[in-house]
Amino acid sequence: MKPKCLVCRSLAFFLLSKGDYNLYKCPSCQLVFVWPPKKENFLIKKVYNESGYQASKHIKFNSLPQNNSYKKVFEFLTIKKGLKILDVGCSSGEFLYMAKKIGLEGYGVEVNKITAMAAKKNGLKVKNCTLEQAKFKTGFFGYIFLGDVIEHLVNPASMIRECKRILKRNGKLVIITPNLDCFWANLTYFLYKTFHIPWSSVTPPYHLFQFSTSNLHQFMAKFNFKPEKIWYNPPPKLSYELWFTGLPQDYNKNINNFLRYYTVYMVYGFFYILNKSLKYILTKDNSICVIYSNCKRL
Question: The pTM is what?
Fold first, then answer.
């Protein structure tokens, strides 16, 4: 049975397999997602556990370099001292630390016990649980930040509904998520289809949903969120993209894999430089950054 799209409820078609996961694509809104979905408990125990995703991310904030992506978020928000901001999936608290420095009252939730503990040691108010388990008061926050979070969720609708409840009327919800409708994602998909080079832009089980600008807006409109500001960030480092082809993990097992990996390295490297050189003429790039305004209640 074909799964239904989260955004528009159209029947999706099988797109490709990567590792042990099947990805489907909606023919109407172009959303790409993992099917069948994993249970939330499986992800917490196996992917976001104490030795898993970002568990080694311990940050000493006194030596932290400035994050330009976070800086840009704050440039578009009205900063009022004491205004409450929530970071969902806050990791070790880098964004919260920057929010605290400019006078916001920061809160965080993080399912990874190790990174949540690191955030607490840095003096930040962080709960080690899911957003729904945190049970914040209705209308408690002026701002909510979902930085590279929505694509990781088993049930994005449940989290956005909870964000709606705990956000003030006309409060701002900031979402950063990979954009599948960009030159880099389309180009690397072409490499997959033509030369069977694994597609780096889809990264299950970490990313379960792959949005684009239009279907993200369509999804958020279901909860009466209106986009106010949008911009794009470039792809992460080339090493990150190469790692998520899955080839570096296997390259040293035999000479054929070794040669294939370095061929892919050169091809990806060339097109990565091309993408960088075109950044001033591309209308969209690898990462969507949107500030949504919380309109009327559901």
Answer: 0.91
